[in-house]
Design goal:
The longest helix is centred in the first third of the chain and has 28 residues. This protein is of the alpha/beta class. It is about 45% helix and about 15% strand. The C terminus is likely disordered. It contains 18 helices and 14 strands. β9 and β10 form a beta hairpin.
Length: about 475
């Protein structure tokens, strides 16, 4: 486990030793400095989470040190330590950015409680920063939507593995929602209140990826002006999501394997061993077993990552989820854009259901955002969808989704699905195998739905398909 680091700055040896005893008893790592300038040099060489600084020191006092720390290391908190008679100055320090102040003589419990509070606030602050980064990609309230058998099977397995510490590998095409599933696992785990940190392994070259994962020491490479924590340190006690894990180089694979085996690592350019208690959830759009067979991925790392495998099916394999997803994104964007759009026409839904969605859910979201922007009425129409999505010759039934329609959502969806299957069977001459392949449904599942809706495929048969 990574430890919080405290820097005690006081020209009095007695005061430094007193604070050091309190800090050591609580298991926090710390260093001491007898001058402010020496403290600044130590901060340049290695990061600290908290500085306890005496107000009255020669050469540079506590307020001057505070100003410099907040200028160069704004995330490092500072507590000013002073005598009772300096309260006005201590209050001034808070106005200038100090977290709080301690009055001497102080009780040990008072010091410990303040430090614990600061570290708790830092944890919340860090999590909020990560959440804001997530919100740049996912809006509030977004989740995995769908009721298809394939998706529900994956979600049930995810729910059962979430409370454990098992390493999880999520497989699926780009845009299916692998990161959303990883966050759902984190949120349902005992680590939910700890950081969820993401790394896009495909977005960074090898040297930068290692620095991103493990951090680096000052001077480790050109441009490394200060020591920096890596994502493993940031994710300590939480979850680290490694997206597109199949893209990492052989040397990074070796280092990642060591972390998974030993639960420790060193920063780039460093020698100190850092312990970590981080759960790994990784994702890939590649077949890692095939990559192992080709020699592109280490088999020992694959087995470490592949403890639990979750496969998120592509959208084309679960067309029954398209209406739910479409309405989910309609709700999201009509609220965001303050537009009074209440429905999606069956014609538009039929077009979307017939589309192959190579970009999966991400593509569907983009289509719905565009449709909400363009739509001038209360219902998304086929004209609001991108050109080229509409397959020729698709007939549509009378609308089921008009505002005020008394039909229940479940019944309306069933009626729409029945009509969609009948149109698909008609286009393929009643051939069940061809129809199943065209709409991305297993032949057995299509037969079950035909039986469920009382569809007679024989009425769609043509002579060349009579043997099916």
């Amino acid at each position: 486990m990574s430890e919080k680091r405290i820097l005690v700055v006081d020209d009095s040896l007695e005061n430094r030793e007193l604070l050091s005893v309190m800090i050591e008893r609580n298991g926090w790592e710390h260093e001491t400095a007898d001058r402010a300038k020496a403290a600044l040099k130590m901060l340049e060489e290695s990061p600290f989470d908290l500085v306890l600084a005496d107000l009255m020191m020669p050469e540079m006092n506590g307020l001057e040190l505070l100003a410099e720390v907040k200028r160069q290391w704004p995330d490092t908190d500072v507590v000013i330590v002073t005598a009772f008679g300096s309260i006005p100055t201590a209050i001034e320090a808070i106005k200038k950015g100090a977290y709080s102040y301690l009055l001497r003589p102080f009780e040990p419990e008072e010091v410990v409680l303040l430090i614990r509070k600061i570290f708790e606030v830092q944890g919340i602050r860090h999590e909020n920063v990560m959440l804001r980064e997530e919100l740049n990609r996912f809006t509030e309230g977004q989740f995995m939507v769908g009721k298809s058998y394939e998706l529900k099977k994956t979600l049930r397995l995810a729910e059962s593995v979430a409370p454990t510490n098992s390493t999880v590998l999520i497989q699926g095409e780009s845009g299916v929602g692998k990161e959303l599933l990883a966050r759902a696992i984190h949120n349902k785990s005992p680590r939910a209140n700890q950081p969820f940190i993401t790394v896009s392994c495909a977005a960074l070259p090898e040297t930068l990826l290692e620095s991103e994962l493990f951090g680096h020491e000052k001077g480790a490479f050109t441009g490394a002006m200060v020591t920096r924590k890596g994502r493993f340190e940031m994710a300590d006690m939480g979850t680290l999501f490694l997206d597109e894990i199949g893209e990492i180089s052989g040397s990074t694979q070796v280092k990642l394997l060591r972390v998974l085996q030993e639960l420790e690592f060193t920063r780039v350019g460093g020698t100190k061993t850092i312990k970590t208690n981080t759960r790994i959830v990784s994702a890939t759009n590649k077949d890692l077993a095939e990559e192992v067979a080709r020699g592109n991925f280490r088999d020992d790392l694959f087995y470490r990552l592949n403890v639990i495998t979750l496969t998120v099916p592509p959208l084309r394999n679960r067309p029954e989820d398209i209406p739910s997803l479409a309405y989910h994104f309609l709700k999201k964007y009509r609220e965001e854009m303050a537009k009074d759009i209440v429905s999606i026409s069956d014609e538009a839904l039929a077009v979307m259901a017939a589309h192959q969605w190579p970009g999966n859910i991400r593509e569907l979201e983009n289509v719905m955002e565009r449709a909400v922007v363009i739509c001038a009425g209360k219902s998304i129409m086929m004209a609001d969808l991108p050109e080229g999505m509409h397959p020729a010759g698709v007939a549509v039934p009378a609308t089921l989704w008009e505002e005020g329609e008394a039909l229940s959502l479940r019944a309306a969806r069933g009626a729409w699905e029945k009509g969609f299957l009948e149109r698909a069977l008609s286009r393929h001459g009643g051939n069940i195998s061809r129809t199943a392949g065209a709409i991305g449904l297993a032949r057995k599942n299509l037969q079950e739905k035909i039986k469920q809706y009382g569809i007679d495929p024989r009425r769609f048969l043509i002579s060349q398909n009579s043997g099916d």
